[in-house]
Amino acid sequence: MTTTPATLIVVDDDPEIRELLVDYLGRHGYRALAAEDAEALHGLLTSETPDLLIVDIMLPGDDGFTICRDIRRDSDVPIIMLTASADETDRILGLELGADDYLGKPFNPRELLARIKAVLRRARGGSPADPSRARLVAFGAWRLDRMTRELIDERDERTPLSGADFQLLQVFLERPEQVLSREALYELTRGRSAPPLDRSIDVHVCRLRQRLGEDAHYHQMIRTVRGAGYVFTARVEALT
């Protein structure tokens, strides 16, 4: 049975970035289209129904924020925003306007690919990989009881998790295959921005790896992405 590839539209005024992303995403099984600005995007939307939009914030004419706001008036199509700005305000505003994720420039296309997969998976909803509505979540050889905050191994033995370990594991389980920076992990687990040069997340990740029985020299489920952060690689399944 042939599966229809997801349609993605890249909106960026840089022709080199458009060409690179369309080619890269096409080689990874997506039907990728491109638009240089809001006008071109709206032209495409008269004949296309995309599964996801990748929108640069800095565009001539209507910027990415305007596009996101306009799209959200009558569509819930997933949107990933790209920004060359280091200003946290851009990220917050984009999320408030309805963006599903954001990525700073310059970026590794592999990270964008991972985020696309994660956003599409969440958008499809109701899939076994969505643990947010389930009490029991399975991953690798483990299960997590979200109500009691206990790890359950293959022998059904339960190990209580501290609040910090549980919260960090929750973040990873809700975002499998998505590269998460240390700053993002800090914000998602603490609810505030990380202090400059803070490396406490590395300590917490190390502790969680030990909880999961990960080898000190080979991390199968929580992998380090050099220069980017961490990615949770195990398949996640909601049991109940």
UniProtKB/TrEMBL annotation:
The modification 4-aspartylphosphate is found at residue 56. Keywords: DNA-binding, Phosphoprotein, Transcription, Transcription regulation, Two-component regulatory system. The keyword Transmembrane helix does not apply. It holds the Pfam family Response_reg. Residues 134-234 bind DNA. Transmembrane segments: none annotated. InterPro entries: CheY-like_superfamily, OmpR/PhoB-type_DNA-bd, Sig_transdc_resp-reg_C-effctor, Sig_transdc_resp-reg_receiver, WalR-like, WH-like_DNA-bd_sf. The keyword Aminoacyl-tRNA synthetase does not apply. Residues 134-234 form the OmpR/PhoB-type domain. PANTHER family: DNA-BINDING DUAL TRANSCRIPTIONAL REGULATOR OMPR, REGULATOR OF RPOS. This is Response regulator. It comes from Billgrantia ethanolica.
